[in-house]
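Form 7-S
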Amino acid sequence: MRKYGVAAALALLIVLGLAGCPKGSASRSISGQISVTRDGQSQPISEAQVRVWPKDPSKKAEPFEYEAVQNLRGVTLTRGSGQFEVGSLTSAETHAEYPILKGWTYVVEVEVAGYYITQAEFAYTGGQAWVEVAIEEKPMDVLDTSGGVKDNEKKLERGAVRKE
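Output:
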């Protein structure tokens, strides 16, 4: 009886070990750095929303037949260091999770308040890709050269309404 208990425990450890082992697609990721140049210095941007999606397959692209590729997105926020990492793609339609597709051109879109929305494209060939995106700050000072607010000469005047 004890012999079967040890064998069952060993089998359970092997199954758990295999479940914990990374598969070929698990080591796929898209990481990067989001920054802005101020006074000639590159500075990281934290709390920027980063969206990643596959755009075009190359000739050697991994096939994807589960659902429409345009439904797939990877979304994350940058850390305080301006770095981000996307390890999988999620379907906007079915909410299923898929690995990063090898051999596709990807779009990285960065959005953060006070900066222009920026997109960059790159070819993902597998493994861990690194992408650096420089964003541009929106001008905060607005100069009004219109002369200010003027009276509306065509405004409606109050009057009496008569019913006959």
